[in-house]
Amino acid sequence: MTIEGKHLTIREWSEEDRPREKMLKKGATVLSDAELLAILIGSGNKAESAVELARRIMGECHNNINELARLSISSMCSRFKGIGEVKAVTIVAALELGRRRKATELVKRKKVTSSIDLFELFEIDLLDLHHEEFWIALLDGANKVMETKKLSQGGSQNTVVDVPMILKYALEKSAISIAVAHNHPSGQNHPSRDDEKVTQHIRKGCEAVGLRFIDHIIVARGKYYSFCDNGKI
Fold this sequence. Notes:
CATH architecture of the largest domain: 3-Layer(aba) Sandwich
Number of strands: 7
Number of domains: 2
Order of helices and strands: EEHHHHHHHEEHEHEE
Strand content: 15-25%
Strand order of the largest sheet: 4-3-5-6-7
Structural class: alpha+beta
Helix content: 40-55%
Radius of gyration: 22 Å
């Protein structure tokens, strides 16, 4: 904020415009994303207050928290003057806490009735990644999620899938049904030939050991592909 060309620090702002004071008086829900971010970073740079810097960061991320969450620590430091390693680590830690809270609450109450339920379940862990990961969800007889687990991690194009390991893990946990998912960092939500082959290997394996294979979901930056919905399971 400036007055007649003079840059003001947050301490010089009126109390009602300071994000910390606003939170204490009115609660966190009234703060904008930029104001919450400003509280995390604490201070700005010589040209910007913490709030102004936070607004610029959010603006460059199209005011989308998911875009901010996809930035690495090194990327934040190089792109935004005033964001050093400590501030970047603080931002990433806060976003990760939020993701874990959402994931814990979702798994506890999640009953799978459609592909969108699985997309919402897996998207939490796969949305912001720049590499591929392969995950499994174990379900009980009522189609409630028992747990989710990452099985493998690869590069930006693919990841290795061990079908016998999937079956062994599900049987050891006494699952009745399973669903699997992986992400496409490119945002392309159509399956590759390898995706098709892996899906059929899992389907046949589940049939052989008496497990129900519900679906294979491809998560692609807000979009998804369901093998079940497309008649491929």
